[in-house]
Amino acid sequence: GAVVSQHPSRVICKSGTSVKIECRSLDFQATTMFWYRQFPKQSLMLMATSNEGSKATYEQGVEKDKFLINHASLTLSTLTVTSAHPEDSSFYICSARDPRGPETQYFGPGTRLLVL
Amino acid sequence: DQQVKQNSPSLSVQEGRISILNCDYTNSMFDYFLWYKKYPAEGPTFLISISSIKDKNEDGRFTVFLNKSAKHLSLHIVPSQPGDSAVYFCAASDSGNTPLVFGKGTRLSVIA
């Protein structure tokens, strides 16, 4: 299957700082990527749809000024958690759809964020 | 309103036996269905999918069955192995560039 990478895999930061997470599609071009969040023992929660060359589409309840998404190229989307607080600590996962195949999304390995 | 439902939060199966994970959906516009496997602290891994024009798709030990009239699909794993222990997510798509809709997952434990 297609490969999606995320960087960093783990980050610890102080409250009030901003953290950037990168999501890359390594062997295909993705016009659309998706960002999810997973709390412990809970299912995946879609945060936003990242569209290359245009604004991201945020799900209800997700603050767009808090979670900045930039999809600057066909292989890279970034999620920036601005002014992070302890409640933002979570596991963030991105996915991308390979346009060469059917409606299959491939997920990155995830980024564990811990805000102290 | 949950469009994709996995009603069993957990399932325990003995090694070598069959694991059957179930998923129901409500949106009749869904035409593509997927199963993902997820280990803790990792991203989900694509397992197998099925298009609505089929009622069965098989890949090694994994088989997905689709019953469109009942809006139900299931994932069969046989024989089950301890390494299959993970959370399994069912997902559905209505084509186009829309996000997949996921169920809440079923935690499978395969006991040796």
Task: Give a quick summary of the entry.
Chain A contains no helices and eleven strands. Chain A is mainly β.
Summarize the structure in words.
The complex is a heterodimer of chains A (116) and B (112). Chain A has strands at 4-7, 10-13, 19-25, 32-38, 44-51, 57-58, 67-73, 76-81, 90-97, 105-107, 111-115. By secondary structure, chain A is mainly beta. In chain B, 0% of the residues lie in helices and 54% in strands. In chain B, a hairpin with a 2-residue loop joins strand 6 and strand 7 (62-67). Chain B is globular.
Shape estimate of chain A:
globular
Largest interface: A-B, 25 and 22 residues
What's the SSE pattern of chain B?
EEEEEEEEEEE
Beta strand count of chain B: 11
Average pLDDT confidence of chain A is: 91
How far do the termini of chain B sit from each other?
Answer: 38 Å
| Rg of chain B, Å, rounded | 13 Å
Task: Report the portion of residues of chain B in β strands.
Answer: over 45%
What's the Cα radius of gyration of chain A?
13 Å
| Number of discrete helical segments of chain A | 0
Topology:
The complex is a heterodimer of chains A (116) and B (112).
Chain A: E1 4-7, E2 10-13, E3 19-25, E4 32-38, E5 44-51, E6 57-58, E7 67-73, E8 76-81, E9 90-97, E10 105-107, E11 111-115
Chain B: E1 4-5, E2 10-14, E3 19-25, E4 32-38, E5 45-51, E6 56-59, E7 62-67, E8 72-77, E9 86-93, E10 101-102, E11 106-111
Parallel strand pairs in B: 2-11
Antiparallel strand pairs in B: 1-3, 3-8, 4-5, 4-9, 6-7, 7-8, 9-10, 9-11
Quickly list its features.
heterodimer, A: 116 residues, mainly beta, seven-stranded mixed beta sheet, four-stranded antiparallel beta sheet, 11 strands, B: 112 residues, six-stranded mixed beta sheet, five-stranded antiparallel beta sheet, 0% helix, globular
